[in-house]
Amino acid sequence: MPKKIKRNWYVPKDRPITDFDRRILSYQNRGKLVPSPKLIKTPEQIEGIRRSGVINTGVLDLVASKICAGMSTAEIDRMVYDYTVSHGAIPAPLNYEGFPKSVCTSVNEVVCHGIPSEDEILEEGDIINVDVSTILDGYYSDASRMFIIGGKTTPEKERLVSVAKECLEIGAQAAKPWGFIGDIGKAIAKHAHRNGYGVVRDLAGHGVGNEFHEDPEVDHYNTHKDGMLIVPGMVFTIEPMINMGTWEVFVDEEDEWTVVTEDELPSAQWEHTFLVTETGLEVLTY
C-alpha cells in the first residue's frame, strides 16, 4: 500500500490560498512532515514571546553575576523566583507536572532537571547548567547556560563545556528555513562524535511560545530522518545535552526528575529559543 501522508497543513475556506501555503503544500504532497498552521506564530505572538525572552535572559544574566562557590542551588532558585515575579512574570517550571522549584540546576554528571536544594553547595571547579523558563502574559520562553564555578575547572570539563556550546551553534547554523529539523541533529552529532562525546537521545529540544512544550520535537542526534519542515514563523529551542562518555542516562528513582549520565561522567548543555525568519534564525532568549 502507498505511504499515507500526514496532512498537517490546511487552508481555511474563508481565506484565499497564498504562495506560502503553496510552498508548504508542495512539501506535504511529496510526503514530507510539515507543521500545522498553529505552529506558525503570528506577529503578536512573536512579540509576546520576545518580551518573555527579555525577562528570561535577564534572569540568566543575574545568575551569571551572582553564582559562586559556597552558594547552594536553592539560593539560585530563590534568585530566579524573586527576579521573575518582580518583573510580572511566572517561572514556568514551578509546579509544572509536579516539579517543585522555579529553575533546574544540573551539576557535573546531572544532565538536566536537577532540583535545587539547600544541601547542594557549589564547589570550585563544578560545572552547572542553569535552565530558566519564563511565562509572561501567557507566552513562554526557555534557555539555559553553563557556568564554571570559580572560573576554572579541569581541562576535560572546560573542553566539554566549550564543545557543547559549539554543538548548539552548529545546530543553529544547520536549521535553515525550508530545511528540515533532522538537519540539526545530524550536524550536532557529527561535531560531538568528532570530539569523542555522546549526545543524549532521551531528551530533545521543542517548540515553545504559546505553550511550554509544543511540536516540533528537536532531536540532537542523527535520527537518519528528515523530521519536520522548518518554516518561517516557527519558534523552537535547540538544547543539545553532550556527555563526556556514553549518551545513555537514567532518572533518579527518588525524585523522579533528575537525569544523570549512566556512567556518571560530566554532561554539559546550552539552550536558546529561536525564531525562524525568512533568512535564518533569530535568538529570542539565550
Show the helix and strand layout.
Elements: H1 19-29, H2 43-66, H3 73-86, E1 90-91, E2 104-107, E3 110-112, E4 127-136, E5 139-148, H4 155-174, H5 182-194, E6 198-199, E7 205-207, E8 214-218, E9 235-238, E10 241-243, E11 249-251, E12 259-261, E13 267-269, E14 272-276, E15 281-285
Antiparallel strand pairs: 1-4, 2-4, 3-12, 4-5, 6-10, 7-8, 9-14, 10-13, 11-12, 14-15
Helix pairs in contact: 2-3, 4-5
List keywords for this structure.
single chain; 286 residues; alpha+beta; 4-stranded antiparallel sheet; 5 helices; 15 strands; 29% helix
Task: Estimate the helix proportion, in percent.
Answer: 25-40%
Described by the principal axes of the CA atoms, the overall outline is: globular
First-last Cα distance: 46 Å
Q: Tell me how many strands there are.
A: 15
Task: Flag low-confidence runs.
Answer: none
Strand-residue proportion:
15-25%
Main beta sheet:
4 strands, antiparallel
Helical segment count: 5
Radius of gyration: 19 Å
Protein structure class? alpha+beta
SSE run: HHHEEEEEHHEEEEEEEEEE
Give the overall pLDDT as a whole number.
97
